[in-house]
Amino acid sequence: MILNRNFLFALLISVLFFNSFLQSSVASAERFVQDESFNHDDLWDRIRSGFSIAGPIDHHAIRKLELPYARNPKSFNLIVKSSEKYLFHIAEEIERRGMPMEIALLPIIESAYNPLIKSNNQSSGLWQFVPSTGKLLGLEQNVWHDDRKDIIASTAAALDYLQYLHKKFNDWKLAIAAYNLGEGTVSKVLSRGAHKGRSRDFFDLNLPIEGKQYVYRLLAVKDIIANSRKYGIKLRPVPNRPYFETVKIHEPIDISLVTRLANISESEFTALNPAYNRYVIKVATEPRTLVLPKNNKNVFLKNLETYHDPRVTWQIYHVKKSENINEIAARFQTTVKQLKAINGISRNRNLTLGQKILVPQVSAENMANTGTGIANKMLQANVHVVKSGDTLSDIAKRYGTTVKRIKTRNNAGDLFIGQELVITKG
Question: Which member of 66, 93, 110, 266 is catalytic?
Answer without folding.
Answer: 110
